[in-house]
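Students often ask why we bother predicting the structure of a whole assembly rather than each chain alone. The short answer is interfaces. A chain on its own may look different once its partners are present, and contacts between molecules only exist in the joint model. In this exercise we take four input lines together and write out one structure for the complete complex. Read the inputs first and try to guess which parts will touch.
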Amino acid sequence: MSEFKRLTDMVLAFRDERDWQQFHNPKDLAISLSLEASELLENFQWKTSEEAVGKNSENIKDELADIVIYALLFANETGIDLVEAIEQKIQKNNEKYPVEKAYGSKTKYSEY
Amino acid sequence: MSEFKRLTDMVLAFRDERDWQQFHNPKDLAISLSLEASELLENFQWKTSEEAVGKNSENIKDELADIVIYALLFANETGIDLVEAIEQKIQKNNEKYPVEKAYGSKTKYSEY
Amino acid sequence: MSEFKRLTDMVLAFRDERDWQQFHNPKDLAISLSLEASELLENFQWKTSEEAVGKNSENIKDELADIVIYALLFANETGIDLVEAIEQKIQKNNEKYPVEKAYGSKTKYSEY
Amino acid sequence: MSEFKRLTDMVLAFRDERDWQQFHNPKDLAISLSLEASELLENFQWKTSEEAVGKNSENIKDELADIVIYALLFANETGIDLVEAIEQKIQKNNEKYPVEKAYGSKTKYSEY
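Now the answer. The structure tokens for the assembled complex follow.
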């Protein structure tokens, strides 16, 4: 079985044991993804990358996991095939950021 | 090969063709995760879930993919095994939200 | 004395008594603004507006205040005249959203 | 007239000319505050504070203004006296971060 499918099944089992699907509309799941991303970012507030990773590695790992857990829930709720979506988005990014323009540059595609 | 490994390899190839690892410190990757989560959330601003999903499904799919793409980059850069991190976090959430307390309730664990 | 000046002076006095200006670079202040906005938003997770405001009014008030406190610190650190910036932005928004196009519509200006 | 009152009146006039109060429930305003804070933060992605402020000062000023504009709208919609809320929050922060513990330290109060 695919890893995404296996992890999604684990997350859905966790959700359903608690009867939580009733709360999981896409808008609140999108809010939750944003909140979890902030909780990851909070580990870096007032710190360099090195200080943050050195001091908060366990919390960083947990918050990163929470982000992907909510991504799996969101994908399930909205019928998105996450693996396919990622493959297609990498392809789109390839077109938005052609190597000859993007090489070594942090300019956003909209400013090319 | 695992799906996470295969997708990570695709994302790293995209990054390295552009010589972008030099920009990818964990703090800026955490910022990027937060920005992508906001871009997903923007699809729901002033809208119900139904309106948003009905109107913006293609952009929603792209932004969700971007979040996971940055999660793969962040995990790679900080040496986190993302599959293991997710499994461990589900286990922690099981302990934080025992079924008998959490069933049908949206109360946060810190308020039990 | 202007209210913005008086509140800014209070916030700077708080900061300087703790010798915190050393941490207050614009990038970390921008991160802090984003984190505080998330803490406000967290009050609305899984809730309607009415449930959130009814249940969490004290925390909502505190988090809103924290956002503006960081806005004052950010403006001070970057030399922005916040009152002038707000007046100019309202003027720009007037041009971006002409009444005849924007009346009763939640369409973003980029989609006009 | 107080500056906060005067700016709030300007923002409400802008809103009412467009008949937008119908969209401005507190939950969507909180989402909007978070989105605007992200737009400010985006100016700092992949950049030092100096690079960002040097390159994007006009956009930084606009996004900071948008944050405070939404804070004024949110306060108006929820009946919060923003000036009083800020004064009270500074007082609370004084108690949470006593000078003798907080001086020169970036430790969060919850870790004292």
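Check your guess against this: The mean pLDDT of chain A is 96.
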